[in-house]
Design brief:
Blueprint lengths: L4 H7 L13 H23 E5 L4 E7 L5 E6 L13 H6 L2 E6 L16 H14 L5 E6 L1 H12 L4 E7 L8 H4 L3 H14 L9 H7 L16 E3 L5 E3 L3 H5 L4 H9 L6 H8 L2 H4 L7 E7 L8 H10 L4 E7 L5 H4 L1 H19 L3
Parallel strand pairs: 3-4, 3-5, 5-6, 6-9, 9-10
Antiparallel strand pairs: 1-2, 2-4, 7-8
């Protein structure tokens, strides 16, 4: 459960003591934040780096040794490379060299001043591979990151050993919406707009840190700092500017993304026009499609994924996760690691890699 720590400060007397260490709550908040900042700095020094591409100064994380099989990962919307934080060490044990990027507006990578698309991110990935002297890699991602991975294969197929598509990138994004009647689509988009959380910003990084601190987990949760960035008003927020980059602030924008994508900005248009059935028509590398199924599945693409697998049975593995939400690597981390471990063996066998 997310907990607004500073709201509590307004309700409690200033000298309420923490039951365990007798430290005033505000002092405990500052101490945890200071600890988180120090650990974040240490972690970044060991795992973090930047590359200046043609488009942006892109941040990325690495885990493992460059002698492993490279897995270049693109995250989902409103997250960043730290989304693999809990599973990366076990992926390294399985034989991967894990590289997780932050793309535009997420983590420590700014939104470029010029128009960009999923294919611009693919270009950034190619530049990163060149910098790290990686000839070929397994390319993968979750949700929107899966579509970035598909765009990369479309642009640079000869740089791909295999693909991991976690609930994204294997079916056109708007397929589900196109199956709705105009009336149903309109009501769905209006509900999304109504329920969309308001932008929240904070006067300090410390406030933002504790507003999003998970009290049920404890610890300093230093990786939370990767989500917090200054916005244009010099306040602190989670991924500021990203919703506008996605063109998803209002129902009308969602509608244009889905039905009139040439009216949308380039980044949103590139998401809508990406058609995996075309991109993968001449598929010649292994692909792992991770497909969660749940009662409220907003990407119910089991049939489409099954059809794609039947077109390329020698290359595509379609793995269904029953009773699982959109974020597989968070909800079912052990199964995620196991499936990627098996997939690595398939990729090595296909390319005759020892």
């Amino acid at each position: 459960m997310r907990f607004c720590f500073f709201a509590l400060l307004l309700l409690l007397p200033a000298f309420v003591l923490n039951a365990q260490n007798k430290t005033p709550i505000l002092e405990r908040a500052k101490a945890l934040y200071k600890e988180a900042k120090a650990e974040f700095t240490r972690f970044e020094k060991e795992h973090g780096a930047f590359i200046q591409t043609k488009n942006t100064r892109m941040h990325y994380l690495t885990w493992g040794n460059a002698s492993g099989t490279p897995l270049i990962w693109s995250h989902g919307s409103l997250t960043n490379g730290y989304e693999l934080f809990d599973v990366a060490p076990n992926l390294v044990k399985a034989g991967y060299y894990v590289i997780a990027i932050d793309y535009y507006g997420h983590g420590q990578t700014p939104i470029p001043p010029h128009e960009v698309s999923l294919y611009h991110i693919a270009d950034d990935l190619k530049e990163l591979m060149d910098k790290l002297k990686i000839e070929k890699a397994i390319v993968g991602g979750w949700s929107r990151g899966g579509y970035i991975s598909t765009a990369f294969y479309d642009a640079y197929p000869n740089r791909v050993l295999g693909l991991v598509l976690e609930d994204g990138g294997s079916v056109n994004m708007n397929t589900y919406y196109h199956q709705m009647s105009p009336e149903k689509l309109d009501s769905t988009l209006r509900k999304i707009e109504k329920d969309w959380p308001a932008d929240t910003s904070y006067a300090s990084e410390l406030e933002a840190y504790y507003a999003n601190y998970d009290t049920s987990s404890g610890g300093n949760q230093f990786n939370l700092l990767a989500w917090i960035t200054k916005n244009r008003k010099d306040r602190w927020a989670i991924s500021p500017g990203v919703i506008d980059l996605f063109h998803m602030r209002f129902a009308k924008q969602w509608s244009n993304n889905i039905l009139r994508f040439t009216r949308a900005p380039l980044f949103a248009e590139s998401m809508s026009i990406l058609e995996p059935k075309i991109v993968y028509r001449n598929l010649n590398v292994p692909v792992l499609i991770l497909d969660p199924v749940s009662e409220n599945d907003f990407m119910p693409f089991e049939e489409e994924n099954s059809a794609l697998q039947k077109q390329h049975p020698a290359f595509i593995t379609h793995k269904i996760y029953p009773d699982t939400g959109h974020n597989i690597h968070y909800e079912s981390p052990q199964q995620f690691i196991q499936d990627l471990t098996v997939f690595l063996k398939k990729v090595k066998a296909h390319h005759k890699i020892r």
